[in-house]
Amino acid sequence: EAGVTQFPSHSVIEKGQTVTLRCDPISGHDNLYWYRRVMGKEIKFLLHFVKESKQDESGMPNNRFLAERTGGTYSTLKVQPAELEDSGVYFCASSQVLAGGREQYFGPGTRLTVT
Amino acid sequence: DAKTTQPNSMESNEEEPVHLPCNHSTISGTDYIHWYRQLPSQGPEYVIHGLTSNVNNRMASLAIAEDRKSSTLILHRATLRDAAVYYCILRRQGAQKLVFGQGTRLTINP
Fold it and tell me: How far is CA A35 from the centre of its chain?
C-alpha cells in the first residue's frame, strides 16, 4: 500500500512568489491534514479536510495560504505571496474516518525555503 | 488543549530497554494519550496510543499511570533505528488535530 506522498520534496522561491504544494493521501482515507514546522518551532496544525470539505481551518496563519482538495482526493496548499517566515517543512497526513483516537499517516514533508 | 511535559533529550544503548516519560497532569477523562516519533528527514510516525489501560503493539508498550497524569513509552530493545524525536500528545475523543510539543530527542549508542 502506497503511503502519503508529497510533491515537491524541496522548493526554493523568492519572497513574493507563489508556491503550490501537493499531497496525495493514502487511497480511501477521507481525512487529510496539513501541518508545518517553521524554523526552531514545534509542528503546528494548519487545517483538516474530510473528503473535499474543510472541517477545521483554525491553524491557517493568514489569507496568503489557500488549501484545496478537489474531488476529495489529493490536496494542494498554495502560498501567495510567500514571505520569509513561511520557510519551513510542510507535512501532510491522512487517516480513515473512524471513531475514537486513530493514527494519522504522515508524508515525508515538503521543505520550503523562501529567500 | 491539555499540555504534556517531556524531557528534552534522553540517551540509551543499543539492545537495552528505553523508558520515555510524559507528564500530563491536566488530562481530562476523554483525552487519549498518543505517541508519535519522527525519524531524521521523515514525517512523524504513529507509535501507539491508549486511554486508561496499558497497551502493547509490535513497536512499543505504553504504561499509563492509574491517575492518568503520566505515562511511559517503553521500547523493549532499542535499535539504532529507534533514534528519533518522540512526541507524547493528548488527543480529545472526537478531535482530529494533533498538538505537538517539543518532544524528547532519543539518542541510541551502538
Answer: 6
Which residues of chain B make contact with A4, given a CB cutoff of 8 A? 43
DSSP β-bridge partners for residue B37: B45, B86
C-alpha cell at A9: 520534496
The amino acid that residue A48 corresponds to is: H
Chain B touched by A40 (CB under 8 Å): no
How far is it, in rounded angstroms, from Cα B10 to Cα B5? 14
* Alpha carbons B40 and B5: distance in angstroms, whole number: 22
Q: How far apart are CA A97 and CA A31, in angstroms?
A: 7
Q: Could you check whether the bond before residue A8 is cis, i.e. omega within 30 degrees of 0?
A: yes
**Sign of the four-CA dihedral A63, A65, A70, A73:** negative
User: What local confidence, expressed as pLDDT, does residue A12 receive?
Assistant: 98
Q: What is the pLDDT of residue A98?
A: 59
